[in-house]
Amino acid sequence: MPATPALTVVDEQGLDGGVVERDVMIGDVPGALWVPPSTPAPLVLMAHNNGLPRTDARLVARARWTATTHGYVVATVDATGCGDRPRPPAVDRARADLRRAAQAGEPLGPVLEPMVTALVAGAVPDWRTALAVLVELPEVTGPVGYSGWAALGIALAAAEPRIEAVALFAGGHVPRPQREQVRDLTVPLLLLLQWDDEGNPRADALDLFDAWGGAEKTLHANAGGHLGTPVFELEDSGRFLDRHLR
């Protein structure tokens, strides 16, 4: 068994509300950590769709709000293929095919399938390693939640019994392996769906929700496009996590 890597703090700053934001390295994986003023607290893993970087403004805003308002320790990492990390060759090939398909007005699903499959396969080991390190921090206690990128969240929930609740964004492609995994997942689910999401057929999200193996599942659907998720869904997601992690 490989040794568990160390967590190194690269930079640290205090935020309003007493939250401490840390840039960290977990072995060679860059990440970020938001620690509320009252600890120990449950941990929420937060990932953006399809490997966008941990510094993405929307992810950072969600993480800061979740730590400040609900008092969770929030963590994210740039796993293999995500952010500035090296991408598997299959991802680079798929990205090039995706650009060509978009320019030609062709269906994107057949191109997204290999790209997201490769991203998830590369990301899961790094996230699992990070989780093993993070749960040992003195600031962390209790169950673990997940919020964000649906394909990764499904794969992690299938592999990690420590994850006890997942809030997923339906606005991203979910590959076939993860669509099959959901049938065996019983952890509570909150699925956020933008009804008019461009390029993400709502039927796919409804099928995923229907196939989820657990009985405790909630679907929130709002009118609007991909970036139109109402602000109040942030609070609803926080209440969902509170129900299952506190």
Notes on the structure:
This protein has 246 residues and is of the alpha/beta class. It has one domain: Rossmann fold. The chain has 7 helices and 9 strands; from the N terminus they run E-E-E-E-H-E-H-H-E-H-E-H-E-H-E-H. Strands 1-2-3-5-4-6-7-8-9 form a 9-stranded mixed beta sheet, with helices on both faces. Strand 8, helix 6 and strand 9 form a beta-alpha-beta unit. The protein is globular. The two termini are 33 Å apart.
Please give the largest β-sheet.
9 strands, mixed
| Beta fraction | 25-35%
Give the second-level CATH assignment, the architecture: 3-Layer(aba) Sandwich
Number of helices: 7
Number of strand segments: 9
Quaternary structure state of the chains depicted = single chain
Order of helices and strands: EEEEHEHHEHEHEHEH
What portion of residues is helical?
Answer: 25-40%
How does the overall form come out from the CA principal axes? Answer: globular
Which structural category do the helix and sheet elements fall into? alpha/beta
